[in-house]
């Protein structure tokens, strides 16, 4: 056993005071430039601002100071002996020094996080600028296409006659891609996409371009099978491929109407086997309140039209059994449609008690995700790209709210113990810079990773998501995960001997304390209706550290309400 450390009171105070005063000296590194961005100047993409060049040195300096501070803080006051005995006056002085060092420690942590955040914003701004440039280059004159649009559009009509839907039709080309016969069927005419839009024409153009690019009808086009100029295919009795696209416009913005008209033409020209494109128009006359009121009432009206009024007519009418909801500021991933097709049977099974299936993960920022094949159950409704079925609309439609529809869905009377399926890596990307919510949580939204890896969802066995299997396995994983501290998890300092894929756990004592823990971890700290975002029975699962290890941020194990 080593001998206790012995210092004189004066020497100990000089030692701690010297370190404390040294750390209080201002950094010589210049502060980050304000207002850097993608459009010109030192913040332009490809020419980082001056502060970025020295950020590495600043980070190393701060990390060194943090290490020194941690070393000091780890020395318990009671463990020191002074002149062979304890001195209460010296203990009080040391406690004051320790408190001051703790404050300095928190300040250094915040400075380091600021540097990381600004670097992420710069990268996001560069990506946005590149996307805008690509969109501008792809724009084409539209006047020449308008003359032929109306005649072609009339070849596919809508009927208000209700009828039982036929089974969804899977594109024939899926078989050529090597998928198994027992795979889940692709989405068809009974699962329309509902795009909600208002006045952002440029946003809508980008959102619809992604829908067209990844629509299942693309798989039905193979060399020599169909051409964009084949008029005979438009009048054939062949069933349409993939979900219809219903674009519901709130108000009368002419630019938005023009974008929708162009989209109709391009779909009919380039994807002649695709299901119908429909333009709905919702009037704002007589609707008061702010943007949240108008948006909620538009949502309710559009859902009523799709579920209760519109039925695609192609030899026989087809009623919508489920709807995929998007907004004009959401871009979809390549496997968006396959993901929802694979999860539709789970949504439609009453035993699974699912409210909806979502494409969104509130903690889906690049450093916090890893596995594009991972799907989780969640107690939180996220919105931002989701699928609901007819049964839910039948229940909730008659009492749809006049404002704040998403928060309303999160309340217990509507949630009714039901859950949501959500991916680890987002299948939608929220690219808006303006909107009803004034770009709330923009730091989190702009760094979301949109999945770019094609997953064959319909060929996967998703039975592990059934509640009877998921809940016991999830509880075992959370309860068996080694407990680590908040700072250890944030810095990726894991216990020795962990396997590469072994999860760990960070504990928060109560929902009231969750926000403070989440902020220190750098994850979404918002709580709605008593539920942290993306949590499942209070457990928020996220990736942290350089190895992106799975971390369960959970209440005490004794408080988990899982089988």
Task: Please describe what this structure looks like.
By secondary structure, this protein is of the alpha/beta class. It is built from 18 helices and 20 strands. The chain has helices at 9-23, 50-53, 55-73, 88-138, 143-153, 173-176, 201-214, 231-234, 254-270, 291-309, 336-348, 390-396, 405-410, 412-415, 442-445, 467-480, 486-491, 511-521; strands spanning 6-7, 81-82, 157-159, 193-197, 245-250, 277-282, 311-313, 317-319, 322-327, 330-332, 354-358, 375-378, 386-389, 419-423, 428-430, 504-507, 527-528, 531-532, 540-544, 549-554. An 8-stranded mixed sheet has the order 6-5-4-9-13-11-14-12, sandwiched between helices. A 3-stranded antiparallel sheet has the order 3-7-8. Helix 7 (201-214) runs parallel beside helix 9. The longest helix has 51 residues, at 88-138. The model is unreliable at 1-48, 77-84, 139-179 and 222-236 (pLDDT under 50).
Secondary structure layout:
Blueprint: E1 6-7, H1 9-23, H2 50-53, H3 55-73, E2 81-82, H4 88-138, H5 143-153, E3 157-159, H6 173-176, E4 193-197, H7 201-214, H8 231-234, E5 245-250, H9 254-270, E6 277-282, H10 291-309, E7 311-313, E8 317-319, E9 322-327, E10 330-332, H11 336-348, E11 354-358, E12 375-378, E13 386-389, H12 390-396, H13 405-410, H14 412-415, E14 419-423, E15 428-430, H15 442-445, H16 467-480, H17 486-491, E16 504-507, H18 511-521, E17 527-528, E18 531-532, E19 540-544, E20 549-554
Parallel strand pairs: 1-2, 4-5, 4-9, 5-6, 11-14, 16-20
Antiparallel strand pairs: 3-7, 7-8, 9-13, 10-15, 11-13, 12-14, 17-18, 19-20
Helix pairs in contact: 1-3, 1-4, 3-4, 5-9, 7-9
């Amino acid at each position: 056993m080593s001998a206790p450390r012995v210092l004189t009171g004066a020497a100990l105070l000089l030692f701690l005071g010297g370190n404390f005063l040294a750390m209080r000296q201002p950094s010589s590194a210049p502060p980050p430039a304000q207002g850097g961005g993608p459009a010109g100047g030192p913040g332009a993409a490809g020419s980082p601002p001056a502060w970025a060049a020295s950020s590495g040195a600043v980070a190393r300096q701060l990390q060194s100071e943090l290490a020194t501070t941690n070393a000091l803080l780890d020395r318990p006051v009671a463990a020191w002996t002074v002149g062979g005995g304890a001195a209460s006056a010296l203990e009080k002085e040391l406690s004051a020094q320790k408190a001051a060092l703790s404050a300095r420690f928190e300040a250094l942590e915040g400075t380091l996080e600021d540097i990381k955040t600004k670097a992420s914003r710069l990268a996001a701004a560069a990506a946005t600028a590149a996307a805008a440039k690509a969109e501008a280059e792809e724009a084409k004159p539209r006047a020449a296409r308008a003359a032929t649009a109306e005649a072609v559009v009339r070849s596919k009509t809508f009927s208000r006659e209700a009828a039982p839907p036929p089974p969804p039709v899977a594109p024939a080309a899926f078989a050529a891609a090597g998928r198994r016969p027992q795979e889940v069927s692709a989405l068809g005419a009974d699962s329309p996409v509902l795009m909600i839009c208002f006045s952002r024409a440029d946003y809508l153009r980008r959102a619809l371009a992604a829908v067209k690019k990844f629509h299942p009808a693309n798989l039905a086009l193979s060399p020599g099978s169909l051409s964009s100029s084949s008029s005979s295919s438009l009048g054939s009795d062949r069933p349409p491929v993939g979900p219809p696209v219903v674009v519901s416009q709130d108000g009368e913005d002419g630019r938005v109407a023009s974008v929708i008209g162009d989209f109709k033409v391009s779909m009919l020209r380039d994807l002649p086997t695709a299901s119908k494109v429909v333009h709905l128009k919702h009037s704002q006359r007589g609707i008061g309140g702010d943007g949240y009121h108008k948006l909620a009432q538009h949502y309710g009206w559009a859902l009523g039209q799709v579920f209760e009024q519109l039925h695609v007519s192609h030899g026989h009418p087809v009623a919508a059994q489920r709807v995929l909801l998007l907004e004009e500021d959401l871009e979809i991933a390549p496997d968006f449609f396959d993901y929802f097709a694979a999860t539709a049977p789970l949504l439609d099974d009453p035993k699974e008690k699912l409210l909806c299936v979502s494409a969104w993960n509130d903690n889906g920022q690049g450093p916090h995700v890893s596995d594009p094949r991972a799907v989780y159950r969640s107690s939180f409704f996220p919105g931002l790209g989701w699928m609901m079925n007819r049964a839910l609309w039948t229940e909730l439609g008659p009492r749809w709210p006049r404002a704040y529809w998403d928060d309303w869905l999160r309340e217990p009377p509507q949630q009714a113990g039901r859950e949501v399926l959500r991916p680890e890596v987002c299948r939608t990307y929220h690219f808006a810079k303006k909107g009803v919510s004034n770009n709330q949580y923009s730091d989190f939204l702009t760094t979301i990773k949109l999945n770019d890896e094609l997953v064959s969802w319909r060929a996967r066995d998703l039975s592990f998501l059934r509640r009877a299997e998921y809940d016991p396995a999830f509880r075992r994983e959370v309860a068996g995960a080694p407990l680590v501290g908040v700072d250890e998890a944030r810095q990726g300092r894991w216990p020795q001997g962990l396997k590469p894929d072994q999860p760990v756990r960070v504990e928060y004592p109560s929902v009231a304390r969750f926000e403070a823990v989440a902020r220190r971890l750098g994850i979404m700290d918002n709580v709605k209706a008593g539920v942290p975002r993306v949590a499942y029975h209070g457990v928020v699962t996220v990736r942290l550290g350089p190895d992106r290890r799975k971390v369960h941020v959970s209440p005490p194990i004794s408080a988990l309400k899982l089988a």
